[in-house]
Amino acid sequence: MTVYAVPGTPGSKVTFKSRYENWIGGEWVAPVKGQYFEDITPVTGKPFAEVARGTAEDIELALDAAHKAAPAWGKTSPAERAAVLNKIADIIDANTEMLAVAETWDNGKAVRETINADIPLAADHFRYFASAIRAQDGDHAQLDGDTVSYQFHEPLGVVGQIIPWNFPILMAVWKLAPALAAGNAVVLKPAEQTPVSILVLLELIGDILPPGVVNVVNGFGLEAGKPLASSNRIRKIAFTGETTTGRLILQYASANIIPSTVELGGKSPNIFFSDVAQEKDAFYDKAQEGFVLFAFNQGEVCTAPSRALLQKPIYDSFLGDAVTRAKKIIQGNPLDTDTQMGAQASNDQLEKILSYIDIGTKEGAKLALGGERADLGGDLTDGYYVQPTIFEGHNKMRLFQEEIFGPVLAVTSFTDYEDAISIANDTIYGLGAGVWSRNGNVAYRAGRDIQAGRVWVNNYHAYPAGAAFGGYKSSGIGRENNKLALGHYQQTKNLLVSYSENKLGFF
Amino acid sequence: MSTTTITASVTIAGETVPRVELTPVAVDLLRSLWEEHGPLMFHQSGGCCDGSSPMLFMADEFITSDQDVRLGQFDLAPAGDPAQPLDFWMSAEQFNYWSHTFLTVDVVPGRGSGFSAEAPRGVRFLIRSELMTTMTPFAGTDQIEADAEAPPAQATIPA
């Protein structure tokens, strides 16, 4: 076990600056209006740095820098861009612990997750897209003996990206890596709950990128996010967040006739068929863990398996074992590597989770575990901690239909295959799902019948580069994590060439 | 005079009972934001990071359509003053799952909210919910988990 020192104290892996400016044109630039806001660590509920409160004026400066950088960056060879992305990946790997502690302090999540998932995955995503852009070919077709159609990929130019707070560095990288690989310049707005960790990364990698290729402007959604998303100086807007803002972003995109990819949350079913429990073996143990993964990242994952569907014959026994297991979740100081569940990311997030626990109780759901705020005492007493919570109920309850974005699981039962699929698909969302069965035919069919972009079969919460990620239904538009994402950041140029000397003959 | 709760008018055809109200602290905040920004509207968001919470926009900033339901209209103006109408919207597909609940818009300290207008004030709108006596919860649900208790039949709408 290791307990990392609090940032800024002796022996800590990271010391934050007292104030962070915007990163524009390869330099730290103070906000035009001179305003700042406090970044609060959810670990203790206390502020730890001031951050630029960017406005439309700062977004314009960032767009100026991006437009200046985009033409030259877009003309670099795929090999050159891949080399830059690989260098970034190497630097991330060389600074894993530092970045992990910074991320944990900014977001509140357990450091074992940032060390083993967030930061290594970020490095790997840069490497994946470095490879993908080098392997990408255009195509051509010989339409007749003298006519050839050539198709080239071209960068869009300057793109906007708005990042969520649940995996601040990794979600930024999911968007940055394909955009940069494809040759675009980026203006990126982090979430105002977690504005600093991405800047810590920029301190490391900023001088590897040509000035203006990546620009980061912090601030509030209304003041900085909206001017970016609605600007007529971007050629694409990417967003991860919730449905109403997603619709607003799409409205802004329609006004400028630009593409938009939006990833908008979910209420993912995790289905356990009876055969899972036919032996109490390693697979059963794995399935039990798969159930408890609702608490991964404090439940603050768009794909959190927040609805567990258990087949009736195993309902009581499987749930009983799983509740016992969830009781053993170690909640504590996020900087302790033994801690399994850290703090929720903000006070309003904490309040929202508690409000859903309240309506769940009023709707008649039965509490099987937790259900309250957790007071961890000492320095952590004002941090934003919630007990792992399990409710039993039925799928029409709001507990089963609303993304709570906390460690709150809603459990129900199903009779047969058709019932399982019907309940699983009875939701406005379609981002993630889990299917657990020893019968490969059942697992395959269920995976295909569930209306969701990612179905984990006999596993959950893996996010390897290469596996396409994105939503069906109201969970959004577009795919990340896979070479398909390059297409979201590229124009298609068609050259239609005639090699014939003969005229058309029309005029 | 201290601020009081404001209950929204009924805007859904065929209904007679209000669906949304504002706590006094929400009323004060909305009046202040109205002074800063002018006319406002709410759209209740679905899931993900800042979601499952009401989003406050400039009126008409968010384009509603037949895919949205207007749950009610508040009048923020003190008695005798010109009306300050503020609509509360939700997507129709989300309303399918919310229609049995009465919503109270409250305010908590917070940070960040998509593009919602209150974030720079360091606060966040939050929904608190009650079951409505006039609605049948979970209509059409033929299978309720045997272990779950039935929903209370006589929940009341708060005054």
TrEMBL record, chain A:
<dbReference type="InterPro" id="IPR016160">
    <property type="entry name" value="Ald_DH_CS_CYS"/>
</dbReference>
<dbReference type="Pfam" id="PF00171">
    <property type="entry name" value="Aldedh"/>
</dbReference>
<dbReference type="InterPro" id="IPR015590">
    <property type="entry name" value="Aldehyde_DH_dom"/>
</dbReference>
<comment type="similarity">
    <text>Belongs to the aldehyde dehydrogenase family.</text>
</comment>
<dbReference type="InterPro" id="IPR016162">
    <property type="entry name" value="Ald_DH_N"/>
</dbReference>
<protein>
    <submittedName>
        <fullName>Aldehyde dehydrogenase</fullName>
    </submittedName>
</protein>
<dbReference type="InterPro" id="IPR029510">
    <property type="entry name" value="Ald_DH_CS_GLU"/>
</dbReference>
<dbReference type="InterPro" id="IPR016161">
    <property type="entry name" value="Ald_DH/histidinol_DH"/>
</dbReference>
<keyword id="KW-0560">Oxidoreductase</keyword>
<dbReference type="GO" id="GO:0016620">
    <property type="term" value="F:oxidoreductase activity, acting on the aldehyde or oxo group of donors, NAD or NADP as acceptor"/>
</dbReference>
<feature type="domain" description="Aldehyde dehydrogenase">
    <location>
        <begin position="28"/>
        <end position="494"/>
    </location>
</feature>
<dbReference type="InterPro" id="IPR016163">
    <property type="entry name" value="Ald_DH_C"/>
</dbReference>
<feature type="active site">
    <location>
        <position position="263"/>
    </location>
</feature>
Automatic annotation (TrEMBL), chain B:
<dbReference type="InterPro" id="IPR008497">
    <property type="entry name" value="DUF779"/>
</dbReference>
<protein>
    <submittedName>
        <fullName>DUF779 domain-containing protein</fullName>
    </submittedName>
</protein>
<dbReference type="Pfam" id="PF05610">
    <property type="entry name" value="DUF779"/>
</dbReference>
